[in-house]
Amino acid sequence: MSLIALIATIGAGIGLSAGLAFNLRLAAVLGSPLIATLVTFFVGAALLLGLWTLGVDSARPDAWPPLWTLLGGVLGVTYVTLSLITGARLGAGASTVAVTLGQVLGASVITGLGWLGQTAQPPTLAGLLSAALLLGAVALLAADRGRKQP
Amino acid sequence: MIQASKRAPFLLLAVAAGSLLPMQFSINSALAGELQSVTLTAGLSYLVGALALGLVLALLRVRPNWTAAGAAPRWVWLGGVVGSAYVVGSVVLTRLLGAALATTLVIAAQVLTALALDHFGALGLPRRTMNRTRTLAALLVLAALGLRLWGLR
């Protein structure tokens, strides 16, 4: 794995886990997890578009991209909203495990069939086993988080 | 706790919600291919998401509690800064490795970070130190990574 991939993995993992913790605190303060998400998305947009304006990875595209490629953020907020609903009904643990199952299944299908601009790669045995182990890890963490503190 | 029969639709909904994430990885990656800039891609993705959510919240007339928010520590507002690392990282990974491997790597890094944040009780989370269950979870993640990166040989 290249150094860029390693840094991107660490950045994404820390960003996601720490981002959730920030969002929990902000949601408690604002009295609404969706308003907290809205703030988070605007802060993220301002930071990234600011960096782009200042010249970080600042390619200027000369054509408008196809409309469907702009909808990633809409899926992001739909995900946050749905996971809040299912988390409230199922408990955080069961909801997290089911979401992770959806993540690995969705990733296998999209990559397997080459949807949404992905290069088609059939799933491998090692890849499926790896997904099962990850689900196990997420389930163990969820079970341990759900246990009463001594 | 609600009955099993009433839980099933919500379990399906949670699985569907999870499948949106690799779709988002792929769509953002396609956008990055068009724009040739990761910062512009992630920034636009956030902006479109924020506008969509803002519209829905305005229609639902959701009102935040700004007074209490003013008294909170300043750092609670910076979730979008660490969130940006997630969006940029996921775009870069998906461009390099494809959605399947990118998803595996992000879940693995997420679990390991969650274990570390819990262990130190960082960012206002309740402190939960490493125990046998958590060590096993970390080992499963490492095994999953090993399998993904080096396969069955």
Automatic annotation (TrEMBL), chain A:
Keywords linked to the UniProt accession: Membrane, Transmembrane, Transmembrane helix
Q: Reply yes or no: does the keyword Ligase apply.
A: no
Q: Does the keyword Oxidoreductase apply?
A: no
Spans traversing the lipid bilayer: 6-27, 34-55, 67-85, 97-117, 123-143
Output this protein's name.
DMT family transporter
TrEMBL record, chain B:
Keyword Transmembrane in record: yes
Superkingdom of origin organism: Bacteria
Classification via InterPro entries: YdcZ
- Any one Pfam family here would be DMT_YdcZ
Keywords on this record? Answer: Membrane, Transmembrane, Transmembrane helix
Transmembrane stretches in the record are: 42-62, 74-93, 99-123, 135-152
**Alphabetized PANTHER family for the sequence:** INNER MEMBRANE PROTEIN YDCZ
Q: What is this protein called?
A: DMT family transporter
Query: Which source organism?
Result: Deinococcus arenicola
